[in-house]
Amino acid sequence: MARKRMLDPEFFMDTELIKNLDITGRLLYIGMWTIADDGGLLEKDSLALKIRLFPADDITTNQIDGYIDTLIDNKKLIPYEVNGKEYIWLKNFLRHQKLDKPSRSNIPLPSWLKYIEGEKRHECKYEIDSEILNKILVGDMETTCSGHVPPRKEVEVEEKRSEIEENINVEDSDESPSSEPQEDGNYKDDVNYQAAIYLRGKILELNPKCKVPNNDYKSMQKWINDLRLIFERDKRTKDEFANIVKFIFEVDDFWCAQIQSPSSLRKHWDKIYAKMQTKTRAAPNNQNSFKAQVDRMKGW
Questions:
Q1: What pTM did the predictor assign?
Q2: Of 73, 76, 66, 61, nearest in space to 29 by CA
Q3: Residue 67 contacts residue 21 (beta carbons within 8 Å)
C-alpha cells in the first residue's frame, strides 16, 4: 500500500533529474517513494507501476522502463536480482525518510542492506553496508548474486514457483535433457555445453565470486538445457549468441549486472537485442560511412 513520505523541496532543483527526465519521469520517481516499503525497496515491474501510479494516464510500460533505466544510469535507483526476480532500491530513501517504527520488508534484501531487530518496535532499523554499496556503485561488485532473502512464507512460494517454471522449461523442450553426463570426449563437442562454458567464463570474469555451477557436464545440465532451448526452440544462431554475450559483458553496464545464467539471458534476450541495435545505430562507424560514400561516388 502507498505510504506518506517526506519530500525534500530540493528535489525540484536536482539538476541531474531535470537534465535527464521530463516531468512524467520525475513524477514517476516521486511516486516510487510513496509505494516503496520501509527499506526503500520495490519490485522492478513496469506494469505494476503503471497500474499504481498512472492508472488513467496514456503512459506505456515501455516509457516506464525507459525512465527506470535512466534513473539507474544516474544512480538514483540500484537494481538487483534474487532467484531470477528483479528488484530496485531507492538509493537516497533512508537518508530522507525518518521512520519511527520501520517494518521488515517482504521483499528479499540486497547484499548492502540489513534489517536490525530491536527489543522494541521503535528500536528496529535498516542499516546500509557502505563498503558493499560503494563497490557496487563503482562496478567492483555484482548486484545479482547477493540478495539476502527474509525467512518468510512468500520466499518459499517464490522458490516453489521458480522450481515449477524450471520444470515447465524442460517440458516445453522437444526432448528432455539427459540426466547422465555423456562419455568424456563426446560432451566437449556439444555446442550447448561449449556455450554454457563460454557464458560461465564471462560471468566469472566480471565477478569471480558469483555463484555459478561447476564446469563439469553433470553440474551444468540446467544451463545446457536452457541454451539448447535458446538455439533450438528460439532459433538463435551461435553468432547471435556470441554477439549478444559480448555486448552484455563488454559494452553494456546495466545488463552485465543482470545476466547471471542462460535462463535470465533467454528471458531478457529481446530487450537486450533491441538495446544493442539502438546503440549500434547511435554510434555509426564514421570510417565505414565515409568509405560507403566514396564507393557510391565511383558510380557517378
A1: 0.47
A2: 76
A3: yes
